[in-house]
Amino acid sequence: MLLANKHILVTGASADSDIGLAICHSLASQGAKLGLLGRRSEALEKTLSLLPAKADTSHYLCPFDLTQLDGISEQIKRLVETHGAFDGLVHSASFQGYSPLKTLKPQQISQYFDLNFAAAAMLLSAFAKQQQSRPGASLILIGSAAGQKGLKGRCLYAASKAALASLVKSAALELADKQIRVNCVAPALVSGSKADKQFAMLGEQQSQALIAAHPLGIASPQDVADAVSFLIGPHSRKITGTTLNVDGGFLAG
Ligand SMILES: NC(=O)c1ccc[n+]([C@@H]2O[C@H](COP(=O)([O-])OP(=O)(O)OC[C@H]3O[C@@H](n4cnc5c(N)ncnc54)[C@H](OP(=O)(O)O)[C@@H]3O)[C@@H](O)[C@H]2O)c1
């Protein structure tokens, strides 16, 4: 129970996110008390119902749209007033999709950047405020291998995730004197509903090539959750400002 009495906010905690659900299950299994953030209450209720039952934890739901950037600071303040200061954050909510250059529209840029980057920056800002996180807190942004490698048709998603790897470095320096750590976990393709959709779109031959580009095989949601648990927990106490790739070797080649 490495995370007993730790209070952690997880964004993208809706049950239909394979990764968000695995992260919540993993953190709750280690004793953490979770704030589950997403837009749909019913999808958060579903996650709550799938967490390991434990008498002394009181997970709670936080239905909120993170593209309301002006409201993030107030939302975190209210959660702290009700549930106490935070020991951790996992920002997993994201906007994913395709944005080929030929058909790019200006409003697509904010669609990707508001949620994937600006909400992350505003969450870090809120967690940096006096009394809102405890010393020793660990803040994690879920990035992507796409942020470190070109991907045809996905320039906005990739760039929004690349920005997170930069954000954690500066934030880590700014928050180190408060003993707050900031890191990024960057998966490549992860098994689950999103990967299944991608395989269906690509067809057999291209799917096999994509799988082969991950020499250790594609990661599971649990592999991502294990990396998050490591960076949230005490065994990474001297690690800050880094990106931990969970990519089956995708970026090594
Ligand atoms: N799946 C992959 O293969 C893969 C690979 C590399 C990186 N990643 C990263 O891993 C993370 C999880 O990926 P995922 O595919 O499981 O989930 P996702 O579809 O990217 O997002 C997870 C959840 O975020 C919530 N969300 C969306 N917009 C929101 C908003 N405006 N405000 C608050 N919550 C919002 C949604 O729940 P509601 O609809 O209830 O709000 C959604 O279920 C993401 O950061 C993704 O970029 C995924």
Structure description:
This protein is of the alpha/beta class and 253 residues long. It has helices spanning 18-29, 41-50, 72-83, 106-128, 155-175, 193-202, 204-212, 221-232, and strands at residues 7-11, 33-38, 60-63, 86-91, 133-142, 181-187, 243-246. Helix 2 links the parallel strand 2 and strand 3. Helix 6 packs across helix 7. The longest helix is centred in the middle third of the chain and has 23 residues, at 106-128. NADP nicotinamide-adenine-dinucleotide phosphate (NAP) binds next to helix 1 and helix 6.
The top level CATH class name: Alpha Beta
User: Bound small molecules, which ones?
Assistant: NADP nicotinamide-adenine-dinucleotide phosphate
Sheet/helix structural class:
alpha/beta
CA-to-CA gap between the ends? 37 Å
**Oligomeric state, counting identical vs distinct chains:** single chain
Count of all domains: 1
Radius of gyration, Cα only, in angstroms?
A: 17 Å
Total of helices: 8
What fraction, in percent, of the residue positions are helical?
40-55%
**Which sequence of strands runs across the widest sheet?**
3-2-1-4-5-6-7
What is the CATH topology descriptor? Rossmann fold
Number-wise, the strands total 7
Beta-strand residue fraction? 15-25%
Mean pLDDT: 96
Largest sheet: 7 strands, parallel
CATH homology superfamily name: NAD(P)-binding Rossmann-like Domain
User: In one word, what is the shape?
Assistant: globular
Low-confidence stretches: none
CATH architecture verdict: 3-Layer(aba) Sandwich
Could you give the order of the helices and strands? EHEHEHEHEHEHHHE
